[in-house]
Amino acid sequence: MITVLNHQDKQMAEKIQQIQQAAYRVEAELMGFFGIPQLHETIREIQNSTELFIGYSEEQLQGVLSYKVEEGMIDIHRLVVDPAHFRKGIGKKLLSEVLKKYRAYDFKVSTGSANQPAITLYKLFGFQETGVIEVAPGIYCTQLYLNN
Hints:
Aminopeptidase, 7-stranded mixed β-sheet
């Protein structure tokens, strides 16, 4: 089930942190880069975030997507799934929920260029690559955009 998460609640922020640290460790391994900001985000930083959070749960929280609503644009900041629940369609369900809710909006996201599973997921929903940026020496992120 997908629900809105109250990330300002300390217990919820702790759950979000646990999932994102596990998921970003996997991405960090793929990229060979452990400087991903959310990998080191504190509970307090999650609680103070101005992003909107939704989560997928079946008995426990298994995936999280956060985003910001800008003028006519949804900026996806994180899409993380507990590695114990990879390949179950949770990322697809979370992304689909936001795309459906904000049908008339454009979307943007960036992910590690070495994170082929994430790039494949976004392209499955029609996102197009718009560029690649170097975030640290030899470490690249792919920017993707969906024009509705």
